[in-house]
Design brief:
With 169 residues, the chain is an alpha/beta fold. It has five helices and twelve strands. The strands form two sheets. Strands 1, 2, 3, 4, 5, 6, 7, 8, 11 and 12 form a ten-stranded mixed sheet that branches. Strands 9-10 form a two-stranded antiparallel sheet. The model has no long low-confidence stretch (mean pLDDT 94).
Amino acid sequence: MGSSAPLAIADICDANSHLLTNGELRPLPTIFQIYGRKKAFSGPVATVKCFEDNVLVRELVAQKGHGRVMVIDGCGSLRSAIIGGVLAKRAENNGWDGIVVYGCIKDVDDVNLCDIGVRALGSYPVKPGKKGNGEKHVPVTITGIRVCECDWLYADSDGILVSTSEMTA
C-alpha cells in the first residue's frame, strides 16, 4: 500500500462482518508487539517459514519489496531473533512495507528507527542459525490462521488482519 493512507483495521472489520464470518478476512491474535516507525502498514503477502534460522529471510529481504508485507513463520520460537536492525533497514531500503514475525526480533532500538512496520512476539538478544533451513513462498500457519502468498495483510495499532483480497475504503 506504501504511500496511500492505510485503512483502519477496526473500520475494515466493522464494514465486512460477512467476510469475518466466511473466513475471507482473518484477524491474527493480539500477541504481537509493535516495532518500527510505521505503525500502520499493508500490502500483498510474501511468506517465509523457518525455525531459528534467517538465511531465507535474508534472501527475501534482499529482493525489491514493492510495498509487500513479509510474513515470517518462525514457529513462535522465543529462543532466537529472526530479524534485527540490519535486516529491518535493508527491508526498508528495498521497499517492503512491513514485516510480521511469528517469533522474535533483536536490536529493538535500531528497528524502531526504521521507516517500516514490524510486528513480532517480542525481542531476544540471540542471533539465529545460518543453515538455510525452511521454505519461501509457501502457506504458513500462525496460531491456526493460514496465511498465503496470494493474501493481503493490514496492520495498525488495533491489530493485524489477513484478507483473501485487497480491501478498499
